[in-house]
Amino acid sequence: MAVTEAPALLAVPTDAHDDSDLRWGRIRQRLVVGLPLAFVALLLLACFVAPYVFPVPSPVGGSVLESALPPGSPGHPLGTDINGNDVLARLLHGGQSSLIVALSVNVIGLVVGGGIGALSGYVGGRMDNLIMRVLDVFIAFPSLVLTIFIAQALGPSVPNTVLALTAFSIPAVARVARSATLRVMTMPYLQAAELSGSPAWRILLRHVAPNITPQMLNFAMLGMGIVIVTEGALSFLGLGIPPPAPSWGNMIFEGQQSMSATPLLVLWPSLALLATVLSFNLLGENVRDEMSGR
Q1: What is the pLDDT of residues 216-250, one digit of tens each?
Q2: Which backbone phi and psi does 291 adopt, to 5 degrees?
Q3: Residues pairing with 244 in the sheet
């Protein structure tokens, strides 16, 4: 009797499943990168372009006759505060102040702190030890306490707020720059530049700075959120940007005085602060992941 062979089991195709996972992975990666990037771009346009293109009311000088208007009122999409100032206008101009302070602090930190850290790592020896011990003194203090102390001593204003915030930005950036420089110092091209007789300033500018810049920008991107939150805390305490000039911090402070009656005056700047900090943190993490090859 002939023996019939059992039909072979059909293999389950996995190519379609793998392609689907890959496709969704790419979409998710684009969303993770694109959403915070789009929000930051939209925020910059809204804060720095919209008030000068569209008929946005003045953020100060409101009438008490229009105080505490609800959202959707004619001419005031988000309503007004207790002083009659337009909430949307104060949000946009407050975002200007917060972003200008954050960008200024990070630029100063990158230039000054990055230069100090790169020079310290390149020179080495006693000079390196001296610079690092001085920076350790600043790093030993809690950053918020040190910032409040300096802001209190200087007084509330935008330049003084920037100076107070750079007190903890510069030492932190210098540490990162020194660490990155020490890694670059072991590279063959740098040793070849030294053997060729290139002066120290040329080596720092042409070989060290370009190779530590990506890591410094990544650190600065993550630091944007920290600076914005700290500036908001200083303004909330009355030590940052002084009223009536708007900032998200002093808007939260002013709103909490009448929070039971008008909670939206606290909600709007709090949401803006949260979304901005979260977006910059996500962008910084994406840059770090790209640099690490993930």
Answers
A1: 888 888 888 888 888 888 888 888 888 888 888 88
A2: -70, -30
A3: none
The DSSP code sequence of 165-213 is HHHHHHHHHHHHHHHHHHHHTTSHHHHHHHHTT--HHHHIIIIIHHHHH
Non-local (6+) Cβ contacts of 255 within 8 A are 81, 262, 263, 265, 266, 269
Q: Taking the chain, what is the end-to-end CA distance rounded to the nearest angstrom?
A: 62
Angstrom distances, CA of residue 206 to CA of 36, 82, 279? 33, 55, 32
Residues in Cβ contact with 294 at an 8 Å cutoff, skipping those fewer than 6 apart: none
Joined together, the tokens standing for residue 271 give 């949401």
Report whether 88 contacts 77 (CB < 8 A): yes
Q: Which residues contact 244 (CB under 8 A, 6 or more apart)?
A: 60, 83, 85
